[in-house]
Write a structure and sequence with these properties.
The chain is mainly α and 177 residues long. It is built from nine helices and no strands. 77% of the residues lie in helices and 0% in strands.
């Protein structure tokens, strides 16, 4: 099903349920991995993904179609993941940086993480980045997202994203040396 037809069916009461099932099947894996790279934990990712799809379902009527559907959903997923991390930081009364390092440490014991020592080191380096650089690096490096799409998701300019990615790469290289 083409995206424009899917959107039309999502906005129609008669076809919304079926279309939403199609939407979930089409995007759940991509959104899962996008969220997972932000929150780093499988169970937390499942919770955030579920909240993301609930928000998408509740707000699909307000989707203005001035961007691609997936960039709109990525924006919701990103905001949900960041909100989750802020909430977790407040609950644990810790800093965002300390939480990120704790999440990376927990990857070692996570049965759903099948990475080796090099991938753990990369995650440590990414965790040390400022939030925006971390998001930009993940989207560009792992998801190969175009800067133009990232600009919509993160509500910023392409130039700022390129600079953030460049700085992130330099910091990761320095960390890994």
């Amino acid at each position: 099903m083409q995206e424009d037809i899917l959107i039309k069916e999502l906005k129609s009461v008669a076809t919304q349920e079926h279309a939403f099932g199609e939407l979930v099947n089409r995007y759940k894996e991509r959104l899962y991995w996008h969220i997972r790279r932000i929150v780093l934990n499988h169970d937390d990712t499942d919770d955030v993904l579920q909240n993301t799809f609930i928000k998408i379902y509740k707000n699909i009527q307000g989707f203005k179609e001035d961007s691609a559907l997936y960039t709109w959903m990525y924006r919701i997923a990103t905001n949900e993941a960041l909100t989750f991390l802020k909430k977790r930081t407040n609950e644990l009364k810790t800093s965002g940086e300390a939480l990120q390092m704790s999440l990376v440490e927990n990857l070692r014991a996570d049965p759903y993480f099948d990475g080796d020592e090099i991938q753990l080191k990369l995650q440590e380096a990414i965790a040390e980045l400022p939030e925006k650089q971390r998001l930009v690096f993940n989207m560009k490096y792992f998801e190969e997202m175009k800067y133009e799409d990232m600009a919509v998701v993160l509500d910023t300019s392409v130039g700022a994203l390129k600079a953030s990615y460049h700085h992130a790469v330099k910091k990761i290289e320095a960390f890994l040396k």
